[in-house]
Amino acid sequence: MLDDQMLSFAEIMHCVQTVAIHLTKQIPHTQADEIVCQMLQRSIELPIAYFAILTAGQVYCALNPADSSSTLNQIIDQIKNVQCVLVQEATDREMYVHIVIV
User: Fold this and answer.
1) If you average pLDDT over each of 10-14, 75-79, 89-93, 94-98, which comes out highest?
2) Which of 39, 45, 60, 77 is least enclosed by beta carbons within 10 angstroms?
3) At 19, phi and psi to the nearest 5?
4) Which domains does the chain have, with CATH numbers?
5) pTM to 2 decimals?
């Protein structure tokens, strides 16, 4: 439960698997052990996306939505091998990697 959002365990697992399948099937260049960044505000989607990244066999990396786009792009440059960034509509920015809206 987060604020007024509440999901059952079954609903959470369904969401996790749906996002994990999207990561593995809809983004064909993403392979196991590649880095998927997550830039989400505090919400029910945050842990769902985290577990989906791990379920898909990817490596999780958190990005701070409060940082500027230039700072975020510099961080992504330093990390290397970032395949995509999971965002919410509220945190969607101009970035040069593949963006997936959760």
Assistant:
1) 10-14
2) 77
3) -70, -40
4) 9-101 (3.40.50.980)
5) 0.78
